[in-house]
Amino acid sequence: MDQAEPQRVVVMTGATAGLGAHTAQHIAGQPGTRVIIGARGSKTVPLGAGVLPLDLASLDSVRDFADAVTREIGDARIDILVLNAGMQTSNAERRSADGYELTFAVNHLAHYLLARLLLSRMADGGRLVITTSDTHDPAITPIAPKVLEPQSLANPIKTGFGSGVRAYAASKLCNLLTAQSFATLDEVKAHKITVIAFNPGLTGGTSLGRESSRGRRAFVMLLMRTVFRLVGLFRPEYVMGTPERSGQVLADVCLGAVTPPPGRIYVSLVKGEPTFPDPSELARSRDAQDQLWRESAVMVGVGQRPAADDAGP
Ligand SMILES: NC(=O)c1ccc[n+]([C@@H]2O[C@H](COP(=O)([O-])OP(=O)(O)OC[C@H]3O[C@@H](n4cnc5c(N)ncnc54)[C@H](OP(=O)(O)O)[C@@H]3O)[C@@H](O)[C@H]2O)c1
Q1: Residue 270 is inside which H or E element, if any?
Q2: Ligand 1 mutation target, pool 63, 111, 206, most atoms within 8 A of CB
Q3: 12 near 35, Cβ under 8 Å?
Q4: Residue 305's CB: how many other CB atoms inside 10 A?
Q5: How far does residue 22's CA lie from ligand 1's centre (Å)?
């Protein structure tokens, strides 16, 4: 990787496709910026960015990636940590290398572990940005979870029709709960790290639904172009955006051009513009945040107390 005197270090997941590819391009184009992308397989990345292997479906791979980043940056610090990778399946049958439901494992558990492992390497005044979705919120999406049951998310019993989208919505709730837990850590406050949960909103033209059958993808596209367009006349959250715009705003969030008002951490892109609404009631529950933190720590095998120093395996 390029070792030429960068001033700003950015570590990012989900930079190889969809909206994140646009984000990475914007960030890598900033002067004096070094971008390290975690990705599976060999990928084309923007000029100025380097890739280290990362498969979020394996906690060992997450640990190896965190070690590799630490070696790679040496004495430098991470200025911006962007946890944007995500996936959705048509049902909740698939399992990660560690035996957890795949969507929960990739979208939540892996990012939770990665953030815990890299927190102590972050720069003072740094930014931790986690991509969530407004599908976490029952007020916007009826399938969103109304209760938090981490064990059921990790090992679901119901894996039939609709379980894939429900697992996805729940994993995005977990992203928001996790962001809020990080924001309350003494270490985060002491180092003035800004934590943001970013909702790109409904974004067409990405590969998020790639694991669905062709028929299902065509059905979803039809829904987006018809029903969602109609609903969008009354509910702006249903207006579909582009990967270019969503990626640009995520870059703005990462680079500090967009920041929520004091005391808020949720940035939600609605009709192409950042807004700062309340997340769902469940996402704001301190009990739910603590429960998810505790149970996730056990699942990934890190210490119970919310401090980065005890994050080693
Ligand atoms: N599109 C929407 O409407 C929408 C709405 C709200 C929130 N979001 C969120 O926005 C983020 C980006 O979504 P997108 O729509 O841009 O999806 P996308 O086009 O499918 O991109 C997903 C990214 O995640 C990476 N990824 C997936 N599984 C991985 C794994 N096991 N290990 C490492 N990397 C993995 C992909 O890498 P590969 O290139 O290797 O596949 C890709 O870079 C996600 O967190 C998603 O939940 C999207």
Answers
A1: strand 266-270
A2: 206
A3: yes
A4: 11
A5: 12
- Phi first, then psi, for residue 220 (nearest 5°) are -65, -40
Mean pLDDT of 63-84: 98
Q: What is the C-alpha separation between 25 and 44, in angstroms, rounded?
A: 11
pLDDT digit string, tens, across residues 229-240: 888 888 999 899
Among residues 208, 215, 201, 283, the alpha carbon closest in space to that of 245 is found at 201
The DSSP call for residue 101 is B
Nearest protein CA to atom 35 of ligand 1, as residue: 85
Give the residue carrying structure tokens 């949960």. 197
**Two tokens, residue 67:** 């070690």
Ligand 1: which atom is nearest the Cα of residue 172?
Answer: 47
Q: 84: Cβ below 6 Å to ligand 1?
A: yes
Measured in angstroms, how far is the CA atom of residue 3 from the centroid of ligand 1?
A: 28
Closest atom of ligand 1 to CA, residue 13:
34
Torsion from C-alpha of 112, 114, 120, 126, nearest 10 degrees: -80
| Residues paired with residue 272 on neighbouring β-strands, in sequence order | none
Q: How far is the CA of 119 from the centre of ligand 1 (A)?
A: 22
* 57 close to ligand 1 (CB < 6 Angstrom): yes
247 lines ligand 1 (CB under 6 A): no
Asked whether 17 lines ligand 1 (CB < 6 A), one says: yes
DSSP-based three-state secondary structure for 190: helix
Q: How many angstroms separate the CA atoms of 164 and 225, rounded?
A: 21
Cα end-to-end distance, the chain, whole Å: 27
From the number of C-beta atoms within 10 Å of its C-beta (0-12, 13-18, 19+), residue 290 rates as middle
Residue nearest to atom 6 of ligand 1 (CA): 133
What are the pLDDT digits (tens) for 96-105? 999 999 999 9
